[in-house]
Design goal:
With about 130 residues, the protein is of the alpha+beta class. It has one domain. It has three helices and six strands.
Length: about 130
């Protein structure tokens, strides 16, 4: 199961798909995966994001390749700015052509943190062992 990012009642993926219907990237917040903790920490601004070395260091992955979840493969990122009681996503999708204007988005920092922080302790399930 993948967690979607809901902004003002609208799915972030739906916002992207409305602009690019064949877009194939998905949320990196995959329930049960070890990656959910890594990406939640990055979205909180508390850890590095799994982006390509050519991407700006202040960007975080919002959507990634659904097959490998590797920032170097395919990613839609945003610049993450924490500004006191606000969290901002700006410069969204700089790697994606024809996306058009998306954002910027501003969130209440307390609500943003309350939404993402529980994912830092989300249960992790190891993949099944093949014998």
């Amino acid at each position: 199961m993948v967690l979607d990012l809901i902004i003002d009642g609208t799915s972030f993926m739906d916002m992207v798909f409305a602009r690019l219907p064949t877009f194939s990237l998905r949320s990196p917040l995959w329930v049960g995966s070890r990656l959910v903790r890594i990406h939640a920490r990055a979205l909180l601004g508390e850890g590095p994001s799994d982006l390509h070395r050519d991407d700006p260091p202040d960007h975080v992955a919002l959507l990634m390749c659904p097959h490998c979840a590797n920032g170097g493969c395919g990613v839609l990122s945003a610049r993450l700015i924490r500004d006191g009681s606000r969290v901002h996503w700006t410069d969204i999708g700089r790697q994606v052509r024809n996306l058009g204007e998306l954002g910027p988005f501003t969130f209440d920092a307390d609500q943003y943190d309350e939404t993402l922080r529980p994912l830092l302790n989300a249960p992790v399930h190891d993949p099944p062992t093949v014998v």
